[in-house]
Amino acid sequence: MTRGQKLSDDLQNTLIHLRKTCKTLNEIVEKSNCKKRTIQRVLSHHRKKDQNHLGIGIELRGRKRIISFEDLQFIHGLLLHTPDMYLDEIQHHLDERRGVLAAITKVAIERDDLKRAQFRLNYARLYSADQLVFVDESSFDRRTPYRRRGWALFTPTWSVSHWYHIHQGGRRLIHCFQVL
């Protein structure tokens, strides 16, 4: 970590706990008498390697969480006791017992299992399993529009038949392959 000598594990753990309680990095510098860059390195190393070592990795990263670790344990206990509980019931119990107002996301509210099943059925009617290529499974990059042939295990020739442009939070290209 530091040039010359290694920081003790106790000091590293103290710096991590200070980061949890102090508002700024300068406060930690004043309280610990360590250099700012040393503290940054300790915290970076902790985020990369030792997140589960102290059990506080969740609270150090990203924006402030609405549901704390204790609330997650409460939800876990609820679901162990009643596995078929709905999201709105969990939300009600969180508000009633823990005082946490957690909103159900729009995606979870609008999710319709019947529509999802119909979509899968229609897709299964139109295409066979060996015709589907998903973007995360294909080598999709800037060169993709210039490729004229894809790769297949069983058929010798595949070609790009259609390009679809979907605008949902940005431009995505999804392509279908068809046997020639």
UniProtKB/TrEMBL annotation:
Q: Can you name this protein?
A: Transposase
